[in-house]
């Protein structure tokens, strides 16, 4: 049994920089993908068009056969004029991180109102706003990782109300409430879903560093909602892996003073993993829509006859996931290391 997907697109991926980028960037294609929507949370963050274009060149040097869609990091450095320049240079989106919530987000936002002039121009020129949808933990408001996404959704609703034509993506949704909220909003609001959030619940990351990411996986019913919306084939829900590599030492050797890094790494196994998961909950027939059609449609990047690269998967007895990928001194441990997948890439 085999199936093929036209030009799979990953609409949320972290490719890092330097030696780690050299290791992980080729994994986009190894995992079956020909388009990568690249996150800007580097050190320092990508806040200008020139930085984004330089970063894109670095990635193209590593693997020129992937289409990299670049993003800017929402910060006070970003001006309406810079948005126009970015749009003219082919940059696609702007990513918003709440301050301090995830990797390299120390410069993230605290309130959206100050960015309204930027959003105004993004709406006008047609750039996409990508939201890491969590608010920072706070004792006084009883906010922690388990309700940080649910509490963020009011911001999403308000942003959509104030900028109804601005295309907004709620990234890596983890809750039933997020799914229902995105569904309730207009055609300009979409949602990415990761592979690992289709698999994990709280029990899987509590005590297991390699399953720990932000936002954290939630309750079984939340996972069920993510699976249902994929199975239903809702066109505004599509794959963004949020594949986020960290050196294994920052995951597995946390100490009382150094917490473990948040991020699950799925790039090198992504398409077989998604097929495996979708099959497990009866949604294998939605693989093409979820990994290619819907995301590309929302971003206005449909597959054409000239650009199409079909990736073929075949069903196997059990393909073991390597424990580690290495290059020089760098290494990364993938999601489900040592486990078996029921699908592998043929070509
Ligand atoms: Zn991310």
UniProtKB/TrEMBL annotation:
CDD domains: DHOase
Gene Ontology cellular component terms for the protein in this record: cytoplasm
Organism superkingdom: Eukaryota
EC number: 3.5.2.3
Residue stretches in coiled coil: none
Family listed: Belongs to the metallo-dependent hydrolases superfamily. DHOase family. Class II DHOase subfamily.
Protein name: dihydroorotase
Higher taxonomy: Eukaryota, Fungi, Dikarya, Basidiomycota, Agaricomycotina
